[in-house]
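subagent[fold] <- orchestrator: predict structure for attached chain, return tokens only, no commentary.
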Amino acid sequence: MLDIALVWVEIAGALSPGDRAPVRLLPLAPERWRHLAPGDLITMYETSVAGGTAKVLEVQTPSEADHSG
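subagent[fold] -> orchestrator:
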């Protein structure tokens, strides 16, 4: 089973191989991501080959995100 999310880079238009930048994930099935906590590492895939890794810095529920601005 895949845990799919939309991904966007916060401060750059794109990331080249080896680059680092903060990104945000918007899970398409949030219930499958609720186990994540700050400090967790996740592997990101665009194809069957791993495209990168990410360290979770912050977790917001949809209701928290609605009230953050």
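orchestrator: received. Logging for downstream: The chain is about 5% helix and 30% strand. The chain has a mean pLDDT of 84.
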